[in-house]
Design goal:
This protein is of the alpha+beta class and 352 residues long. The protein contains 9 helices and 20 strands. The chain has 2 domains: 228 residues, P-loop containing nucleotide triphosphate hydrolases (Rossmann fold), CATH 3.40.50; 109 residues, OB fold (Dihydrolipoamide Acetyltransferase, E2P), CATH 2.40.50.140. Adenosine-5'-diphosphate binds next to helix 1. It catalyses: alpha,alpha-trehalose(out) + ATP + H2O = alpha,alpha-trehalose(in) + ADP + phosphate + H(+).
């Protein structure tokens, strides 16, 4: 059981602050996901937490103890990497037992605990194999078993699923989540995949250029994105963002005219999630269908209003009630589900 506190963490490479004054608490027993585009400083933050990288400024505390200058093994953290990082010459059992043997645990006890960890991740049948005789998913299970065998204070995951195929990623992410919850171990998990982040996080932290754009529960970030960056990044497809002018309770630009609260005036960015855009067939509509994709139970429909493209997600059951499935070129009208708009300052991108 551990709380991790990062305070004022800064890291500079070649004159650029890749982590820029980051303050973040990982509450005891929770799973925090750092998400953001490639290069935003996620791995650097994780590696500083692990002690694999030294911060230029700021402190790292684990359970109130200042570990800023401590080596990784003094921090009682266990890491799972994207590339598994297994020892090729050791068997699965040897790999899992390695941290125990390293810590001086006797051979018999280490073997027994390695087996128990293998059972937890469903690879007890593979204990005598070498890593090269395993699939990617099996190798990552070995790495996860190796991380949990010592029951560390903190789990650190650095893009653990990025080398696996889509189906396995979905399977393994919920297993990681289940294990983390069962063991109650505080965890920090880095991914560029917002869907993965949304599905497993207690606390979701969006990083943009080394700074926290927003933190909260996945639901909070989805419902009330703090700025246009978060609105565009969280959700797939991302939020439609349209720059225009608000006046007397109406947002307008290039043939679009949507209601907004009367108090909002001036240059604003109007955000609307694809599922909150109501598209309906209308022979007099001023929008046209540009592209239609059926994605399982819903359609992704790109409509064009003038030269502007907007993305709508429409339930297949809704489209079933239309005279026909929309085709490129069809005329439609486009409205926003009342109250579902997100309004941002056009200059700063901050939520209004
Ligand atoms: P992310 O994990 O979000 O993709 P990283 O934390 O790995 O991002 O990297 C952040 C930025 O710092 C990137 O621009 C990367 O190129 C740079 N960077 C990371 N490690 C080093 C290093 N050892 N030397 C120089 N630049 C680095």
């Amino acid at each position: 059981m551990s709380t991790v506190e990062l305070s004022g963490i800064t890291k500079t490479y070649g004159g650029t602050a890749v982590v820029d004054g980051l303050d973040l608490t990982l509450p005891d027993g929770s799973l925090t996901v750092l998400v953001g585009p490639s290069g935003c400083g996620k791995s650097t933050t994780l590696r500083i937490t692990a002690g694999l990288e030294t911060a230029d400024g700021g402190t790292v505390r684990i359970d109130g103890r200042d570990v800023t200058g401590a080596a990784p093994r003094e921090r009682d953290v266990a890491m799972v990497f994207q590339n598994y990082a297994l020892y090729p010459q050791l068997s699965v059992a040897g790999n899992i037992a390695f941290p125990l043997r390293n810590a001086g645990v006797g051979k018999a006890e280490a073997a027994q605990r390695a087996r128990a960890a293998a059972v937890r991740v469903g690879i007890e049948d593979l204990l005598t194999r070498k890593p090269r005789q395993l699939s990617g998913g099996q190798q990552q299970r070995v790495a996860i078993a190796r991380a949990l065998v010592r029951t560390p204070s903190v789990f650190l995951f650095d893009e653990p699923l990025s080398n696996l195929d889509a189906k396995l990623r979905v399977e393994l992410r919920s297993e990681i989540r289940r294990l983390q919850q069962e063991l109650g171990i505080t965890a920090l998990y880095v991914t560029h995949d917002q869907e993965e982040a949304m599905t497993i996080a207690d606390q979701l932290v969006v990083l943009n250029a080394g700074r926290i754009a927003q933190r909260g529960t996945p639901d909070e970030l989805y419902r009330t994105p703090a700025d246009t960056f978060v609105a565009g990044f969280i959700g797939s497809p991302g939020t439609n963002l349209v720059d225009g002018t608000a006046r007397d309770g109406v947002f307008e630009v290039d043939g679009l005219s949507w209601p907004v609260p009367a108090a909002v005036a001036g240059a604003v960015t109007f955000g609307v999630r694809p599922e909150d855009l109501i598209v309906a067939p209308d022979a007099d509509g001023h929008a046209r269908v540009d592209l239609v994709e059926l994605l399982g139970p819903r359609y992704v429909v790109i409509v064009k209003v003038g030269e502007r493209r907007l993305t709508a997600v429409i339930e297949a059951s809704v489209v079933a009630a239309w005279p026909a499935v929309p085709q490129p070129g069809d005329r439609v009208r486009v409205q926003v589900r009342p109250g579902r708009e997100h309004l941002f300052d056009a200059a700063t991108g901050a939520r209004l």
